[in-house]
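User: Can you model how iron/sulfur cluster sits in this protein?
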Amino acid sequence: MMKIEKNSEIAEIFHNYLDEVNYEGLLSVANFSEVYNSVMDEQKQYLESICGVKFNNYVDFGSIISLGIAYHPETIESINIKEESGYNKELWNQYGYEYSHLNKMLKEISEKIAKLYNGIAIPPTTETPSKEIRNVKDFFPNTLSHRAVAENAGLGWRGKNELLITYEYGPAIRFVSILVSLKFIEGKRIDSQCGECNACLEICPILREKSNLKDYRENCRLYLNSLGLVHDVCGKCIKACFKEIISRKR
Ligand code: SF4
Ligand code: SF4
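Assistant: Here's the modeled complex, given as structure tokens:
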């Protein structure tokens, strides 16, 4: 088995890219079958369809590389700032702009690595236009949960906000995944480190009520649409958690 270390070829390509674009990030590897077994049925079918005739080969020998690029901290600070006249949406939109920029970079570097290793890059977001989405479930058959890959690759734990929480950047990081028919030494899952913290639940009534809702993700999607921000994002649960993780680091 190969190990992805700082000096290994894939890590070197990724870290050189991060230096070029002036961002920080994380990389690890998950076992293909473990990810496959951990995702919902629609995503199992998605994996089967993109692997095609090579599906069994991926089950036996496959890995999924998880790459994450972190937001700049000042972008996270611009989320949900209330002023006398209301929320500063111009500032809040910085989060949406960087969200889109991170997706573009993740797509670029994942496609480059996939090409070099004869793998398959899974885009960071679904390419279905949001106006065609009538329910959050419409997203599920068209992508893989990059959070599930990062979780299986040991890059962080699943927080009470359902995001992947890293020690380094909290949830202020976006992920992409690359399927490769190669075995690497894989990361190990991390138990929740949320402890007594409830910061994300305190900021978001939808998260607080998630166990009483049919599917909190649909309530979240409707709320994002109602905000009228670019790229239909919100980020309040990311900011609350980012502050908590940064204060722990201090
Ligand atoms: S994105 Fe916003 S609405 Fe959705 S769970 Fe997070 S804080 Fe709540
Ligand atoms: S804000 Fe606190 S409870 Fe929520 S995910 Fe982050 S660490 Fe966990």
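A couple of observations from the model: The radius of gyration is 18 Å. The chain has a mean pLDDT of 93.
User: Helpful, thanks.
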